Amino acid sequence: MGTVGSGTFNVLQGNGAEITRRTGAEVKVAQVAQRRANPACDMGTTAITDDIFAVATNPEIDVVVELIGGYEPAKELVLTAIRNGKHVVTANKALIAVHGNEIFAEAAKHKVTVAYEAAVAGGIPIIKSVREGLAANQVNWLAGIINGTGNFILTEMRDKGRDFADVLKEAQELGYAEADPTFDVEGIDAAHKLTILSSLAFGIPLQFDACFTEGISKVSQEDVANAEALGYRIKHLGISRRTDKGVELRVHPTLIPEKRLIANVHGVMNAVLVDGDAVGPTMYYGAGAGAEPTASAVVADIVDVVRGLQVSPLGYESMSDMPVLPMEDVETAYYLRMMVTEKPGVLAKVTKILGDGGISIEAIQQQEHHSAQVPVIILTQTVREGQMNAAIAAIEDLVEVSGQVTRIRVENLDG
Q1: Is the pLDDT at 310 greater than 80, yes or no?
Q2: I need a labelling partner for 106 at 20 to 30 A (CA). Which of 82, 324, 362, 380 fits?
Q3: Domains of the chain, earliest start first
Q4: Residue 56: count of CB within 10 angstroms of its CB
């Protein structure tokens, strides 16, 4: 009965008549398991227990709503509920991304539904949109801003010229980021959500371990300003794309053209861009977290269960064996920033390494600097990540190059 739990209870109580009108059935909260009372939620005469498994085994209950989060005891609770013949609604992206294959198999065995709309992008109905609304399409690719904390930080860095550490501190004070912000700023939360979306889009098993994950903690205010000057914005994106060799599955900071709709999603808002072969690109935008937006998605799943909508959890009756590509085989363009000694011939050495590696340059810029070391910015055309890894290693070996080369991937995301 935390933020989402209390929000779900309040929506069920406040919109009970509308839910009955939509489903033809009364949805009643029969029992709540909680560790401590939530003053934001008056549960009246609802039965309360501190034993979560009492809910999962209660013979009077048809649907168990799991809003604990994390792997355990959530996994044991969900499996116990399923084995007791109960439908499950969850907002737990980590649980679905890592243990979803096992949970869905157990649900099929016991002929119950597991619904998880609230696990990805809060109140945005993206699961239903991909699984049902776009069912006629072969999805080509999808890209999403699916972590509000990271988007808030990058927005503040761009709009106000602030540093990462400074904005992160404010995000923690505002409650957007946890005391330990690793899951948000290092991309783990987004990787959980992207794993789910890619399985829905391409009909492949959930493979969280195969998702390439890179956070935003190394993105500098200088990089944000450089991107803006070049006509791009930096967003922390989850990207999944179908290729002839397999499926790309990657989360990382990304330069995208400033004119794209998704480049103009600011603050804590979420957005997912999906490109289908029949419909073309479509974008889904809204609140990715919060009590009522997330509760909206939880209650929508409860409504589906009550209506008896027996939809395959990932939208496919059989899974594809299409592999997830190793990151070295992914093809994208790149923004590179490096500090080099200001003397003749240095840029020639750098461009020769790129040329020898089969990497074409889109733009190059040597910035003004009042020291012996000057920043050089390079935009490349599309190339395989493995080639870029080798080229960056060779550039960093040059005596004229100081420190590490900053690399941010570039995506055009056009239809």
Answers
A1: no
A2: 324
A3: 3-119 (3.40.50.720), 127-287 (3.30.360.10), 331-410 (3.30.70.260)
A4: 22
